[in-house]
Amino acid sequence: MPVLTAAVLAAFAGYAGAWYLGMVEGNFALLLFLATIVTGLYWLAERLYFLPRRRQAAAALEAQAAQRKGELAARGIAPVDADLATARQRLLMQPWWLDWTAGLFPVIIAVFVLRSFLFEPFKIPSGSMIPTLLVGDLILVNKYTYGLRLPVLNTKLTNGTPPHRGDVMVFRYPPKPSLDYIKRVIGVPGDQVAYLNKKLTINGQPVSKVALPDFFDEDAMRYFKQFEEEIGGKRHRLLNDDDRPAFIPGVEDFPFKQNCQYSVEGVTCKVPQGYYFMMGDNRDNSLDSRYWGFVPDRNIVGKAFLVWMNFSSPKRIGAFD
């Protein structure tokens, strides 16, 4: 068992190292699931087999010591002091290969359940959601609001509450589902979404857009036009770049692309059933549904709701819309 365990731990360490070095495309959900299964099997083996055997060995040691003590007493010989407690402790102690497997199972299963069904942490890697979310924000995503899903497979177990317009949602990037993206829900199934000349219209109704003072992007070292928009009863800020045209370049092929009409003014799309239209709040610097299409319900990960830390700016901690 020690050799087998060393090989299993080396495989996990090798995978993590190759992922860190960029040699393989990592899948943390799968890695955590496998770690839960492996450590769980060791935990069961410890409870049902290895621990009882160690206890039997300790009991046998105590019985032998008692028998020896009785034999010496029968001969009138005083018992010799022996460090029986230390020997018993050594027999009951977990070997290293169980410490690193069965011993870690309670922690791993707690992380697995918390991350899979309640809350999952993410780090914002890009500026597509500025000014709502900044690069480096560490956020929490609610995994149950839109319905519980099986880990790894992402198959829905419960219906939950459907996503609403204005929600900030994490989802699996449709062209490459191994990647997680975060954008704002703009259109729900059945909506007619138009973004023409940088003005948003949903089902023929213009979305309220009020000018705010310009926003200074510290990374880009320049100012951008800032507005307040209201979608689904929720207000949020967005940015526009006057130097970027309304035309959408580099549009990819995607399912239901025939539902969209592109022009020099922008795009108009009819959202199909079971899909959502997503856009970043940094409207002219966001790769979103305008470019790669609709997000299917099966790709939904959860609803983002809280910045729990930004080491460059701790004052950003708090909830957001």
Automatic annotation (TrEMBL):
Q: What is this entry's stated membrane topology?
A: Single-pass type II membrane protein
Q: Which reaction does it catalyse?
A: Cleavage of hydrophobic, N-terminal signal or leader sequences from secreted and periplasmic proteins
Q: Print the keywords alphabetically.
A: Hydrolase, Membrane, Protease, Transmembrane, Transmembrane helix
PROSITE patterns named in the record:
SPASE_I_1, SPASE_I_2, SPASE_I_3
What Pfam families is this protein classified in? Peptidase_S26
Return one GO MF term.
signal peptidase activity
Peptidase S26 domain segment(s): 98-308
Matching InterPro entries:
LexA/Signal_pep-like_sf (IPR036286), Pept_S26A_signal_pept_1 (IPR000223), Pept_S26A_signal_pept_1_CS (IPR019758), Pept_S26A_signal_pept_1_Lys-AS (IPR019757), Pept_S26A_signal_pept_1_Ser-AS (IPR019756), Peptidase_S26 (IPR019533)
SUPFAM superfamilies per UniProt: LexA/Signal peptidase
User: Which EC numbers does the record give?
Assistant: 3.4.21.89
Where in the cell? Membrane
Q: Where are the transmembrane segments?
A: 28-45, 97-118
Top enzyme class? hydrolase
Report the sequence similarity comment from the record.
Belongs to the peptidase S26 family.
What is this protein called in UniProt?
Signal peptidase I
Organism source for this protein?
Caenimonas terrae
Q: What is the lineage of its organism?
A: Bacteria, Pseudomonadati, Pseudomonadota, Betaproteobacteria, Burkholderiales
User: Which gene underlies this protein?
Assistant: lepB
